[in-house]
Amino acid sequence: MSEQRSGSTWFKEMLNGHPCMFMYGEMFMRQEKRKRFSTMLESPQKFMAKIPDTKPATCRYWVVGMKAFHYTTPVPTTLNPRNKELTPRVMQWMKKQGSYARFIHMERHNFLDRHLSDVRANSPGLGGHCQKIKGCDTSKVHDMRWDLKVNEMMKYLKEAEKQSASVKSMMSSSGQPVLSIKYDELRTKQEVWCQVLNFLGVSCADLVLLHSSLKKDITKGRDHVIRNYDEVEKALKGSQFEWMLES
């Protein structure tokens, strides 16, 4: 479980570096995947050939997983109005698997950074990861700056806080094992990766097998990247989100 602009693709690719793990991308954004997610998880070999950049199976899979975004699972949304039916169906399937079915909740704790990444991703010609876009110059992206619309930013932060609480409640009430981790710590603390592997029943010694070619698109400080930094700082001052500018 994660959210867009939270490092979920990087996390998925890192785990896919292990020869005995197979991680699907976002499972519930397309109707055909929503209909057959259980079959895709139980028999991944049948679907791998249809998935771009899929590695060949080199061993019997120990772990098979999928990515799901906050806004596609806990409550009905405009994007996916059938969530009311989807969530119970997912939970019912997971309960049948017992403790073998587990949640990893990876959150980008700093919602402001997530919003900034979202603004970057929606800039003309920069949708998604620069490395995956033909002709995208990563060095130029590193030097780019953006204006944040304060009202939209505050709305985004409050909605992110609400969604996070909703998803945490859903997982805690599911009865399934849950591991909560922070994207920021995955970037800097090797022991957090060990927690992930151990949670999946894999030895921490296998950490050397995990890898991803993805690099961060935004690498400079917020005071450089946010062009209207003073305006953003003023808006966040005294709010529950003030620390996100300072951390």
Describe this structure in words.
With 247 residues, the protein is mainly α. It has helices at residues 8-16, 31-42, 83-97, 111-121, 138-142, 150-172, 183-188, 190-199, 222-225, 229-236, 243-246, and strands at 21-26, 63-67, 103-107, 178-182. The strands form 2 sheets. Strands 1-2 form a two-stranded parallel ribbon. It has a two-stranded parallel sheet with strand order 3-4. Strand 1 (21-26), helix 2 and strand 2 (63-67) form a beta-alpha-beta unit. The longest helix is centred in the middle third of the chain and has 23 residues, at 150-172. The model has no long low-confidence stretch (mean pLDDT 83).
Question: How do the strands and helices of this protein lay out in sequence?
Answer:
Layout: H1 8-16, E1 21-26, H2 31-42, E2 63-67, H3 83-97, E3 103-107, H4 111-121, H5 138-142, H6 150-172, E4 178-182, H7 183-188, H8 190-199, H9 222-225, H10 229-236, H11 243-246
Parallel strand pairs: 1-2, 3-4
